[in-house]
Amino acid sequence: MPNVTPKILPATASATNPPLLIGDLLSAGVRAAGANPIVYRDHSRHDYRRFEERVHQLAHLLTAQGVEAGDVVAVLDWDSHRYLECFFAIPMIGAVLHTVNVRLAPEQILYTMQHAEDTFVLTQEDFLPLLEPLAPKLDRVRGYVLCQETPHAVNTSLNVVGEFEALLAEQPRRFDFPTFDENAVATLFYTTGTTGNPKGVFFTHRQLVLHTLSEANLFQAKGVELLSRDKVYMPITPMFHVHAWGVPYTATLLGATQVYPGRYDAEMLVKLLVEERVDFSHCVPTLLNMVLSTEAVSSRRVDLTGWKVLLGGSALTQSLSRRAWALGVDTRSAYGMSETCPVVTIDVLPRHVEEADYETQLAWRCKAGLPAPFVDLQVVDTEGQPLPHDGQSVGEVRMKAPWLTQAYFKEETRSEELWRDGWLHTGDVGSIDEAGFLTISDRIKDVIKTGGEWLSSLELESLLSQHPEVAEVAVVGVADDKWGERPVAWVVAQNLNEPPSIEALISFMERFVDDGKLNRWGVPRDIRLVDEIPKTSVGKLDKKRIRSGL
Q1: Which of 87, 118, 267, 546 is deepest in the core (most CB within 10 A)?
Q2: Catalytic residue positions?
């Protein structure tokens, strides 16, 4: 692209250009919300004005403990109103919010807290046994605030400065928040890969505000209409995982009612969905499957009609979407990754598809969707050349957008690999069709090469999951002397006591060969019936562990 020199006119000497800061999302939400509540499980409920006051009080609490701009504050909690307050108060004083992934192994949590250089910690009491043996090695941490559901005495070796609610109650309800550069780091968290230590991913105030504005635009699109002031929102994505996909920021901006379920328990989730009349949630497919499998839902003792769920992290299969639809649950797909903040595409269906029946929509609903505003997304070949939008040409997905993480924290080599050629490389394989819709075929590392042909493990999973007796499935490639690799499937039956036979599952897959949807060498001949499939800390299929178990 040629260099150009557009005209830039001088601003009036007295004009101001305020920075994009997270605090403005909160103040806008308070203005919009009216009497809408923030709900925590069945423990607490208060309106947005009290929510704002609690954010101000938390800022006082932290600064009283010596937390300064630039300090990193770690949070270990289940999804709660407290966590939501941390999403705002910590960055708004100029500190950095470190959302600790509590589902990592203890040695990985220790690594992330040391690497992040945490100086202060807010922790729910369930995590005391985890933190106590780590604390002697966390020499930068000056103190801990204990978060409890009900106040009671706790015997711990940690340097606990007080209980969250008790300390909060002592603080003034207004804080004079500073104004600073919008490029200041606001949040930090760690994502795991197939090798090496977890990688630190960080985002600035500017990036988070821009992502929030884009997400709000997507969620209010005609036909999607997931979130607004008049909707009730409940995340089923952990708040430590990419800020719960950034949706708490968007829900706050729009003034929506927000319901936080605490530790995920299927029965409690269903109770809140029904009693709070939740309109919108987001999660990985395994968690949706967990909710739909509860006795109350599967027996239709409770009615979830009208609940909309956005799926990401793993591919939404047609069988899961159909099962949800039969129970009145409306599913759509989105795409992103930790490094993208995360949402970069969503299923805003073309008008002629939106107006069609569900079966016509189904294949579209399971695609990754259209790029969000300001997202430049390409599928490229091995030489980095963009591939045509024909729905057939498959290559690596790469992108640019104003909110993508600019580097891994203190990881120069990995950062350069992520951003080679000036594009963020996702490591995902996909295609783009004539309508601009992205379909993810697989992770590069999960594509199976057998007999010189490429197989998508996601496609095999989608096909096998359509068997009526299959609840969950994972497919991986394993080394084979004759074919190079061959597919192996792990299957969880709907009824563990009466699983389908291996022969029946193979015969079911062979029907797709007869229909021309699958090559014969793509049929998994090695199928393992298992009680459960290993998951990552955020509920995705853990294919690294699956391969190691073969």
Answers
A1: 87
A2: 191, 339, 449, 454
